[in-house]
Design goal:
By secondary structure, the chain is α/β, with parallel strands linked by helices. The chain contains five helices and 15 strands. The protein has helices at 41-49, 72-81, 151-156, 225-230, 287-298, and strands spanning 36-37, 90-94, 99-100, 108-112, 128-131, 165-169, 174-179, 182-184, 187-190, 192-197, 237-241, 272-275, 301-306, 310-314, 336-338. The protein has a six-stranded mixed sheet with strand order 2-14-11-13-12-15, with helices on both faces. The two termini are 31 Å apart.
């Protein structure tokens, strides 16, 4: 599975006066004075008060009443058939993490080794960008999926799949995402990098990738510990399917079709799926599971990458109660439907 990064750096207007829908309305964002890791109460308080992307952004759109695609059944059947029989249910992968940094976080060089031409250099000179990378930058799957390795050891490891990294600067309203991120000695490198604005609906240039293969941001899509604890997730999720077709649809900007198929029954990057309203959520499932399923009915999930599962991304937070998401692996793909999507607004 591979993924990529995004750009949008428009002015942030009134961010501190806004709140994440369903979180703590009218709460000012706590000041970030030093780098905060995602799996801390301090970071929870900050992200709970943030408006993560505009309220009319696709990630925040209520799609519970949006009409189905005419070929929804055929597309769901194809998504299912593409996977091995033991992989035809929903999976949650603890993968994407993030760090919050202060406005004055020093910029450091990061070399983009594969896609410098589709990277946001942030004042650097090709192929090197200047990013506000703190010493404690977490790399994908740490700590839940990295065993006994320290963060410093994992930063330098030459293994670990996509190795995404996400840096969020709440005070300026910017965030940066990288892919195949690694510290080599005292230097940083990645396949490419992208900068976004929390206050903008701007997308990547047409044809450009991002930290995800679809050219989408990852941070707005993550299932986070703080929102699971509140029991309410108010955004769409990042969805991985086995195959995608040529031609992204809004808000995606990039294709990654193996075999360059144009079959309309194979989902496109940017395709939106929704859990069927009639799916009965068992009353004895955990509050975390209920939060995920309710959000999948209301906000759905957006296809962002190709991979060997039908999966959504959650933070690799070591504070989740053990087994709190286990029942979700019994939810079959047939309980989902594909819906018509809206264009830019």
């Amino acid at each position: 599975m591979r993924a990529i990064f995004l750009l949008a750096c428009w002015p942030l207007m009134g961010l501190a006066q806004q709140a994440n829908p369903g979180a703590h309305p009218h709460t000012s964002i706590p000041t970030v004075k030093s780098p905060m890791l995602f799996n801390t109460p301090e970071a929870d308080a900050v992200v709970a008060a943030m408006q993560i992307m505009p309220r009319n952004n696709p990630w925040n759109e209520d799609v519970s009443t949006r009409p189905l695609l005419p070929n929804s059944d055929a597309m769901i059947a194809r998504i299912t058939a593409d996977l091995a029989p033991n992989r035809r249910t929903l999976r949650l992968f603890q993968e994407m993490n993030y760090v919050l940094v202060p406005d004055n976080q020093p910029l450091v060089p990061i070399r983009f080794v594969n896609y410098p031409a589709e990277s946001d250099l942030n004042g650097g000179k090709p192929p090197v960008g200047l990013y506000p990378i703190p010493p404690n930058l977490p790399v994908e799957t740490w700590p839940a999926g990295t065993g006994s390795l320290t963060l410093e050891e994992w930063q330098q490891a030459n293994t670990g799949g996509d190795r995404h990294a996400i840096i969020v600067q709440p005070g300026t309203g910017k965030f940066w995402e990288t892919w195949e991120t690694r510290r080599v000695g005292n230097s940083w490198q990645a396949s490419n990098g992208a900068q976004f604005s929390l206050a903008s609906n701007a997308t990547r240039p047409n044809g450009w990738t991002s930290g995800d293969a679809a050219g989408l941001p990852m941070f707005p899509a993550l299932v986070r510990y703080d929102e699971c604890q509140r029991g309410e997730i108010r955004h769409a999720m990042r969805l991985v399917v086995k195959r995608t077709r040529v031609g992204p649809i809004y808000p995606a900007t990039h294709s990654a079709s193996v075999g360059k198929t144009t079959d309309p029954d194979i989902p496109a990057m940017g395709q939106r799926l929704r859990l069927k309203a009639g799916f009965a959520i068992p009353s004895d499932w955990t509050s975390q599971e209920k939060a995920v399923l309710v959000a999948l009915k209301k906000f759905g999930a957006i296809v962002a990458d190709n991979g060997g599962f039908f999966s959504i991304s959650i933070t690799p937070d070591d504070r989740y109660p053990k087994g709190c998401f286990d029942h979700l692996s019994t939810v079959g793909i047939g309980n989902f439907e594909t819906i018509q999507t809206a264009g830019p607004r």
